[in-house]
Amino acid sequence: MAEQAPLGEFEVTILMAVLQCGDAATGTTVRNEVARRTGRTVARGAVYVTLDRLENKRLLSSRFDAATPERGGHPRRVFRVTPAGVRAVKHALAMLAAMREGLDPILGDV
Amino acid sequence: MRAPWRWARRARRLRARLPARTATAALGDLLEEFGVRVARDGRWRTEWWLHRELQSLRRAYARELEASTGRRFGHVPLAIRTLRRVAVAADVRSVVRSLMRARGFAAAAAVTFALGATINITVFSVVDRLMFRPLPYADPARLVQLHQLVTPANGDTPPSLSILSEVSLAIAERTKAFSGVAWAEGRPVSTSVVAGESPLILSVATWNILDVLGVRPELGRGFGPDDAGAPIRSVILTHEAWQRQFGGSPGVLGARWTDARRRSFQVIGVLPPGFLLPSSRFMEQCDGLFAATGLFVNLGPGAVSAGAVARLRPGVSLAAADADVATLMTSVDQWGSAVLRDALRAGIGRRVTVQPLRSGLSMLLRPYLWLLVGGAWVLLGVACVNLSILLLARGRSRERDVAIRTSLGASPVHLISRAVIEALMLCAAGWTLGVLVSTWVEPAVLAVAPSEFRGFAVTPLNGRVLAITLAVTAVVAVFSASGPAMTALRLDVMHVLHTEGRSRSSSRRRGSGALLASEAALGAALTVGAIVAISAFLSLVYRSPGYQPRDLYTVEVPHGSGGAAGSDPSVEVAARPTRVHVVLEVLRGLPQVQRAAAMLSGLFGDTGNADLWTVPGAQTSAIAISDGWFETLGAALRAGRVFTKDDIAEARQIGVLNEAGVHLLWPHVPVASAAGRTVSTSDGGRVIVGVVGDVHLEPGTPATPTIYIPITAASARSHPGNRLAAILRMTPGARPEARTINARLNARFPRASVDVGSVERAIEPVFGQPRLVAVLFGTIGCLALVLSGLGLYAVASLEAWRRRHEMGIRLALGDTQSGVALRLLLVTLRPVVLGTAVGLTAAWWVSMAGAASVVGVGARSPLPYAAAALLMLSATVLATSTPVLRTSRVNVVAVLRLFA
After folding, report:
1. Distance of CA B96 to CAs B63, B92, B218, B396, Å?
2. Residue B19: which of A23, A56, A58 has the closest Cα?
3. Which residues from chain B sit within 8 angstroms of residue A41, using beta carbons?
4. Candidates A56, A70, A76, A78, partner chain B, best to mutate (most B CBs within 10 A)
5. E-assigned strands of B326-424?
6. What's the start-to-end Cα distance of chain B, in Å?
7. Is 50 exceeded by the pLDDT of residue B508?
8. N or C terminus: which one in chain B shows less Cβ crowding within 10 Å?
């Protein structure tokens, strides 16, 4: 497999939000999770585009649940982080941790 | 739960942008959240939220597409923009190729739009300076016009806008709202710098006019207080007259001349180019201004001028100025003279209106101008609808092409841009054609335009005219493209590809039906206007004025002092009778003069010696005339005879009445029986020897009861006027030369100088506005009919082509050809009937709202409406007959085999 380009901050955020949501990770729940945890309102389009991009990178996989009348007959799309996705998150966090080393006097306990 | 507004359409648009799996999930997520939010936030807030969410999704995926393109081909936004440009250029090339293949369609569409564009460019070039262009004065927003409404007591002539000089003076001196009050009369004063050559047409103005307007002369100086009342009138020429008459020479300053009326003028300055006389009395030609003898005082308290122009002081609003003037007018009894109070009682409005100068200038003409502009816009609307119909018809014939493009991945933006490019190219071609045609017809338009409009017209090649009409063209192109673009977007690709364009669903006919109805409505309204305007003008033209104005000229000769200004003191009162005979002898001896006669009054609107014949409660006139007067004028003799040379020589106590005079004196007596009766006059009564037809000095105006009496030595001697009016009947095409007449008269008595004028030209303004309205509305109405016919033909052809399979089946099942033809005819007839009814109702409403007084009172009669309806229906039948008959005669076997 060709070497993946490093993930962007928002992609890492979305991957971690999917992990947080567990089996209920849909576009809406992921967006709400990001908003709840970061206090940042993100555009729906940005979330969906990122989810699609991560799926194309095989860091996420998705499946359709059964359709319901509330959804106008449209099925729910549920996301799951693939093992490659988990590794990518770990890698990104490790990179951040390595970059953080020695910055405690400046950054404190953040 | 109620579905969101236009949900299916919005879902379709989202699916067009997003990957299928994502779109499905996103639509479900949105609907689910929509249900929750509607219960919490209400319908409209949730709709707004949904709109923004959908927009966010579409934009995000559009950006993602662009970014992925950048990632694949190198992340260079410039490259993407270049690719887009190339795509547009490719579209343009493709549209050009496609139009070249359909030359007939392209020509029809371009000509269709050119018809509307030509009228709009022409009308706009005529009215722009009057209606839309900023006035050429300093800070024009602070300039206002002051006027009173003058309502004539007899009601025969329309009200006019003027102001009494005493009121102007009071406003200037007693109010605080204005920094200056001035006026320019706008009544042409003709003065010849060199006798016999084309005269300068000047307007009198107060000396402070340029200060109030904030206009600085480009050469020389402006007026000063010393110029008012100076024996030599100070003249400031317009830039155009300076260039034309004096070749732009700086030596014009100080040029001095004395004209035929012995008035002296001296040029003191030259106005900047494009100067506009601030008077609601528009002059055909204004070559400059000369200073009035005083600001207002020397005019006399009752003198009336065209509305005054004033400049508001800084910080003073129009409403405050209006209130200030209104307060002044409430106390007119304290400061006004007896003459002013009499004038106010006699019909001049006590209220002084203060309004922005632009509105004031064009106030009397505004209904005409708006009617013309409105007519041109409506015609442009017809052309626009027609273009839409043609593009729609073409779009339907190319559905397969569009379906293939869509299936190959053409985006909605691409389809829309292609439709817009096609419409833009056709409109641009039509606009170019329109500019060329309007430049070509410009002289003809100016020839039929009222004289007061001509001075304001600009060439159609004027930059502002071109820019504005081009912008309008672009808007029309986008509008015209919207129908075909929507059709292309809604195209059922699978269905079209499957059937190969052989069948259509009936729902797609609705667009052309609506367009056809709107076109018929606009066309019917314009046709009514055209019929009314043309009939009003023809009635004016064919209503005889009672004489023959063609080849008739007036010659005014000084006739002694009479105590009036501008008189010739060299003419002794005692010599006046002899002078009349000498003048007639000279005039009758001129080359190409067929007849000549003289009268002791002016030709237009003069009551002559009104004291001679008075009838209580009626306005009458008594005019002394020479022999041959009626023959020269071309007036009709109704009964008896006219004056002979013996009547004049023997000073007989006789008279000739006009028909109005007979009706006034003896209402129940036939005109033929009036001869031989005696009329009571102040000189002992006169025997009526003949009755002549009424002479309406201006066509359409009522005739004044008049008694004509022979010129005698006594009447010539006692005539109070200082001018002798003569009329000349010339051989067709000939014109009397003032220089020749002066030379011959000078040989008989010294210092003779005459003014020569054409009667035909003098009454021309009466025809001006009705003629312009008739010509333009006639043209607009005819063009609307032609355009409607083209649109109908296009729709009928399309319908006939589209339904040929259905008609083939009907014929195969036993329907008759006439039945099939009628069925097709009804397809176009139904919307046309509906549209015509709407158009006629709108025209009726507009005429009731006041347009009838402008176009013609015939707008209130049902006849024009019936005629317009008949014309529209005839045009429909005529335009649709060919395609309908062609389809009804279709070869059934061939058609059924084609669609098998």
Report:
1. 31, 6, 51, 19
2. A56
3. none
4. A70
5. 353-356
6. 46
7. no
8. C
Is B852 a residue whose pLDDT tops 60? no
Q: Using one digit for the tens of pLDDT, what is the confidence trace for B414-423? A: 788 888 888 8
For chain A, the maximum distance between any two Cα atoms, rounded to a whole number of angstroms, is 56
- The answer to whether the CB atoms of A74 and B25 lie below 8 A apart is yes
Residue B167: CB atoms within 10 Å: 28
ipTM of this complex prediction, to 2 decimal places: 0.89
Summarize pLDDT for B567-622 with one digit per residue, the tens: 454 455 555 567 778 888 888 888 888 899 988 776 665 656 667 777 777 777 88
Give the long-range contacts of residues B582-586, CB within 8 A, separation 24 or more: B582/B745, B582/B748, B582/B749, B583/B557, B583/B724, B583/B726, B583/B745, B584/B626, B584/B726, B586/B741, B586/B744, B586/B745, B586/B748
- Bridge partners of B146, per DSSP, are B308, B354
Q: Do the beta carbons of residue B324 and residue B175 sit within 8 Å?
A: yes
B699 vs B320, higher pLDDT: B320
Mean pLDDT of the residues in chain B? 78
**Spatial distance between the Cα atoms of B142 and B775, rounded to a whole number of angstroms:** 37
Name chain A contacts of B56, Cβ cutoff 8 Å.
Answer: 43-46
Which of A26, A62, A72 is facing B27, going by the closest CB pair?
A72
CA atoms within 13 A of residue A55's CA, in its CB half-sphere = 18
Closest Cα partner for B480 from B419, B527, B431? B419
CA distances from B736 to B505, B730, B732 (A): 76, 8, 12
Which residue among B1, B35, B60 places its CB closest to the CB of A48?
A: B60
Share of chain B above pLDDT 90, in %: 5
Token pair 């260079």 in the structure block, residue: B76
E strands, B331-450, in order: 353-356
Long-range contacts: B845-849, Cβ < 8 Å, 24+? B846/B525, B847/B528, B847/B532
Q: Is A57 on the interface with B (CB under 8 A)?
A: no
> By the CB < 8 Å criterion, does B26 face chain A?
yes
Helix then strand then coil, % of chain A, to nearest 5:
60, 15, 25
On the 0-12 / 13-18 / 19+ scale of CB atoms within 10 A, B838 is: middle
What mean pLDDT comes out for the span B701-728?
Answer: 75
- Reported as type and span, the H/E element at residue B385 is helix B366-397
DSSP B275-317: -----SS--S---EEEE-SSSSGGG-TT-EEE-EEEEEPTT--
Nearest to B455 by CA among B622, B287, B585: B287
The amino acid sitting at B179 is: S
Torsion angle of C-alpha atoms B503, B508, B513, B514, degrees rounded to 10 = -170
Decide: helix, strand or coil at residue B18.
Answer: coil
What residues in A contact B10, CB-CB < 8 Å?
A: none
Could you report how far apart the first and last alpha carbons of chain A are, in Å?
A: 36
* Beta bridge pairs of residue B305: B163
> What's the CA gap between B213 and B221, in Å, rounded?
15
Mean pLDDT score, B291-309: 59
- Report pLDDT digits (tens) over B229-273: 778 888 999 888 888 888 888 888 888 887 766 678 889 999 988
Q: Report yes or no: B432 at the A interface, CB cutoff 8 Å.
A: no
Phi and psi at residue B216, to the nearest 5°? -110, 130
Contact criterion met (CB < 8 Å) for A48 and B57: yes
Angle between helices B862-888 and B764-802 (to 10 degrees): 30
* Token representation of residue B810: 């009907």
pTM over 0.90: no
